[in-house]
Design a protein that fits this description.
Structural class: mainly beta
Helix content: under 10%
Number of strands: 26
Oligomer: single chain
Strand content: over 45%
Low-confidence stretches: none
Strand order of the largest sheet: 1-22-19-24-17-14-13
Shape: globular
Distance between the termini: 52 Å
Order of helices and strands: EEEHEEEEEEEHEEEEEEEEEEEEEEEEH
Mean pLDDT: 96
Length: 291
């Protein structure tokens, strides 16, 4: 099979705060050509690179807000997140865990630093990824998947390290998350000098974010920490070699190839559906969640 080459390497843009608890670099959608159409089915990727939050008795975060038409996926690398939604989902996302919330027909949601962690403070690092839903599933009932790190499929690479499979599969080993369209989401944890090979269909939109360390892709281009790699839609195979002990988030998904009409916290297929979403939110159809 042919090599999947790099299309671009994006440096982190200046950070901004979401609420007062998430200091993020936005990679999707951005001026790097990483718009929603190019990255379909991935709508947004915000990366909270390592940042020290001081201790506080009032946890920082984001208050009650609505979502409709897509899924939010939160991956905690450092620190802990406490969250809840109007559909009854909620809990604590510990280090290494994932919260996969399907907003679908509509939920209210809030997320904060976990109370006890906030009292101590410390280094916080996380990713939030928005995954679009097919038109036929946008108005399905909301659901929630709490994925502990211990539940992820770990593919042992021997001395090379391991691959933590959250969704999709790596070498036939499947992750625990259920998805509405073909989506692969995994962490490659590699020791210095070791390699990992990946293969995804050439039409899948495929990218990677270097969470820790640095890597050499396809034996040619070095990608430092906190940088984002977009691959071309040609070829299937690519290789990472760790220049130092590294953690790399890999995303790859089959594009839905449907109209995308975003507005704030809603992502639908048409303007009329967005208007309906606001009407439903304003008339209380998303339920109730105390702020």
């Amino acid at each position: 099979m042919a090599t999947k080459n790099i299309e671009l390497i994006a440096a982190p843009k200046p950070p901004h705060f979401v609420g007062d608890g998430f200091r993020v670099h936005n990679f999707i959608p951005s001026g790097y050509h990483l718009d929603m159409k190019r990255m379909d089915p991935f709508l947004m990727l915000d990366y909270n690179s390592k940042f020290h939050f001081s201790c506080t008795d009032t946890p920082r975060g984001v208050g009650v807000h609505p979502h409709r038409g897509f899924e939010t996926v939160t991956i905690a690398y450092k620190g802990r997140v406490e969250h809840s939604d109007s559909a009854g989902g909620g809990g604590i996302i510990g280090e290494g865990d994932v919260q996969w919330m399907t907003a679908a027909s509509g939920v209210l949601h809030k997320e904060f630093h976990e109370t006890e962690w906030a009292k101590e403070g410390g280094i916080f690092q996380m990713v939030q990824l928005w995954v679009n839903l097919p038109a036929k599933d946008k108005m399905s009932p909301p659901k929630y998947q709490a994925i502990k790190n211990s539940e992820m499929k770990k593919v042992d690479l021997g001395e090379n390290g391991l691959i933590e499979v959250i969704a999709g599969d790596y070498n036939g080993e499947k992750g625990p998350a259920s998805t509405f369209s073909p989506v692969n989401l995994m962490n490659a944890k590699l020791k210095k000098g070791e390699k990992a090979n990946f293969s995804f269909p050439e039409n899948f939109n495929t990218a990677a974010l270097v969470i820790e360390g640095s890597i050499i892709v396809n034996g040619e281009e070095k990608v430092p920490t906190d940088h984002f790699v977009l691959f071309e839609n040609e070829g299937e195979n690519f290789t990472f070699e760790a220049s130092e002990d590294s953690v790399v988030l890999v995303i790859s998904g089959e594009p839905l190839n449907e109209p995308i009409f975003p507005h704030g916290p809603f992502v639908m297929n048409t303007r009329e559906e967005i208007i309906q979403a606001f009407d439903d939110f304003n008339t209380g159809k998303f339920g109730y969640l105390e702020d």
